[in-house]
Amino acid sequence: MIDDKFSILITKQDVQEYANSVDEKEGIYFSEEEAKQHGFASIPLPPSMPFLFLKPQEGLFHGVIHRTQAFDYKQPLYIDTSYLCEYTFEEVKRRHGYIFYEQKLTIFNEKGNQVATFSSTLIKGERE
């Protein structure tokens, strides 16, 4: 099992590059004015962007299948805000020649309140 804690700060440029890479055209990711017109305090992070916060394990992702992914937000995440992330990665079972891993990322704001959780399940063959 791997446990890790780290801080992250996402900039406007980070959000814009990510939005462009996934062909996201929504103006709230490019303009603070438009984000505020839609009720946001600032430019929010796209919902799936926390996937990039994960710390890939060396050698794991060759031949891996991404089985499930879930996001649970208590509030939006914003640019230029520091967040503390707690990451866990563990093998949960072996079945029929496959290894199942679960990874979880819990994100806290500067006050220590949990603001989001991301989880996913990965599958890798035991033989390569």
Note the main attributes of this structure.
5 strands; 128 residues; five-stranded antiparallel β-sheet; mainly beta
Parts with pLDDT < 50 across at least 5 consecutive residues: none
Question: DSSP strand (E) fraction?
Answer: 35-45%
Classification by helices and strands: mainly beta
Shape: elongated
Describe the largest sheet.
5 strands, antiparallel
The helix tally amounts to 2
Order of strands side by side in the largest beta sheet? Answer: 1-3-4-5-2
What is the mean predicted local confidence, pLDDT? 88
Radius of gyration: 16 Å
* Topology as a string of helices (H) and strands (E): EHHEEEE
Textual characterization of the structure:
It is a single chain. By secondary structure, this protein is mainly β. About 10% of the residues lie in helices and about 45% in strands. It is built from 2 helices and 5 strands. It has a 5-stranded antiparallel sheet, with no helix packed on it. Strand 4 and strand 5 form a beta hairpin. The radius of gyration is 16 Å and the shape is elongated. It starts with a strand and ends with a strand.
